[in-house]
Amino acid sequence: MLGFMYYLQLLGYVIVRQGMDQAMFLTKHYAVPVAWRRITIDYHNRLNKPAQQLYKEFVEWTKEEYLRA
Q1: From residue 9, how far is each of 4, 14, 19, 46, 48 by CA, in Å?
Q2: Is the pTM of this model over 0.85?
């Protein structure tokens, strides 16, 4: 059971990671809302530590992007 929970957590991390990577590649104006939505959904679905950490990093990244723009 513990292994299964760990697997789900890892899967969640991979999904968020992919969402972030896609966001970096796509254009700023399109990518941010899409990735933001994906990460927010993931964040609310399973409040695991990797997702929370990536969520915080993504918030920082978007702030920096918009300040630079």
Answers
A1: 9, 9, 15, 8, 6
A2: no
